[in-house]
Design a protein that fits this description.
The protein is an alpha/beta fold. Helices cover 40% and strands 16% of the residues. It has 13 helices and eleven strands. The radius of gyration is 26 Å and the shape is globular. The termini are far apart.
């Protein structure tokens, strides 16, 4: 015999059922944009409108181009972001900067940061954040790089921590080259620990320069990207630019210099203390490294980078920037690789 209904006249199934939760209505919008300088439209749109397609795919909007006018349709928030992104790309071209897929990706990522509205949309009252070198102009490509660039222009000692591909060393070298060109420092000193990976330096062919150059190659690459090769060679020969392993820093006082230590996670505490105390008058020092990539022989020695940040963070004149996988500015797949290795199972 069937169960009797309750006094309310509802069956058990009826009592358990709940009305569906109303979904938040997605408001749609459409806007039109037009541009004064039609000569910038070809690089703005990209070959076969590739740049516009990249913005469409990332933000979920539809963009149609007719001459100097753009029409954007889609969800209201996405349309607003797409407008700001395209305006920022146009402003970059107007300032003489080139666009590539990486630059577009970085502007899209930064458009989601409310505090960066002035930078992204080009409406900031202050001067744009950039570093000018002889070969190119470097602008922020992630939210963290904005604060990092401010620190490089302001603070005496900067620690830059984070994974590969976030621009820690590259942006620091660009700032150093810019200050060397303008004469605000007299020397550029680039260093890193020569940590061996299964081979002894003594068994490598050549003189000392030949032995240590492979460890310092990333610093050379950044230099040549910021200065013409003949200027790099001339300044290396004159001593205005010095590239050396950290062991060569002992006993020196580095005044009127911009000093960069790369791969600092592979220094010992003693090496880090020695390096930091080389700081001289009218100098700036940047210490870059990834605390999760320590290769110090022995495995049980504490990284000098972690020790120094723990001791010095908060000290007046010392700044710390921490980059994450979200700040990777190489190919987007590099960010996904970093996230996979730093996940809960890492």
């Amino acid at each position: 015999m069937a169960r009797k209904a309750s006094g309310s006249g509802q069956t058990s199934a009826e009592k358990l059922s709940k009305p569906p939760v109303p979904q938040r209505e997605i408001r749609r919008a459409q806007i039109d944009m037009d541009f004064d300088d039609q000569s910038l439209l070809v690089p703005l749109y990209g070959q076969f409108d590739a740049n516009l397609v990249q913005v469409e795919n990332r933000l979920g909007v539809f963009i149609s181009a007719r001459g100097d006018k753009l029409h954007i349709e889609g969800p209201e928030d996405s349309v607003a972001r797409a407008r700001d992104v395209i305006q920022a790309l146009y402003d970059r071209l107007a300032m003489g900067q080139d666009l590539d897929s990486g630059a577009i990706e970085s502007v899209i990522a930064m458009s989601n940061e409310p505090t960066l509205d002035g930078i992204v949309s080009g409406k900031s009252d202050g001067p744009p954040i950039m570093i000018r070198t002889r070969r190119k102009t470097i602008v922020p490509r992630s939210a963290s790089q904005v604060g990092y660039m401010h620190q490089l222009a302001r603070d005496d000692v900067i620690f830059a921590l984070g994974p590969a591909g976030t621009g820690k060393t590259y942006v620091a070298v660009a700032q150093a080259v810019s200050q060397l060109i303008t004469g605000s420092v007299q020397r550029l000193i680039l260093s890193r620990p020569a940590v061996e990976a299964g081979e002894r330096l003594g068994f490598l062919p050549g003189d000392m320069k030949d032995k240590v150059d492979p460890y310092l190659r990333p610093l050379y690459d950044a230099l040549y990207d910021c200065m013409p090769p003949e200027q790099v060679e001339r300044r290396l020969a004159s001593g205005e630019i010095e590239i050396a392993p950290i062991a060569f820093m002992r006993g020196r006082t580095l005044a009127d210099s911009f000093i960069i230590l790369d791969e600092a996670q592979n220094t010992t505490r003693e090496q880090m203390k020695m390096f930091l105390t080389r700081f001289g008058q009218n100098s700036r020092m940047v210490v870059c490294g990834d605390p999760k990539q320590v290769d110090i022989p022995g495995g049980d020695r504490m990284s000098g980078l972690a020790d120094a940040v723990g001791r010095l963070e908060g000290v007046d004149g010392i700044a710390v920037t921490r980059f994450t996988a979200a700040d990777v500015v190489r190919h987007p797949i590099v960010g996904r690789i970093v996230e996979a290795y730093e996940g809960p199972d890492a």
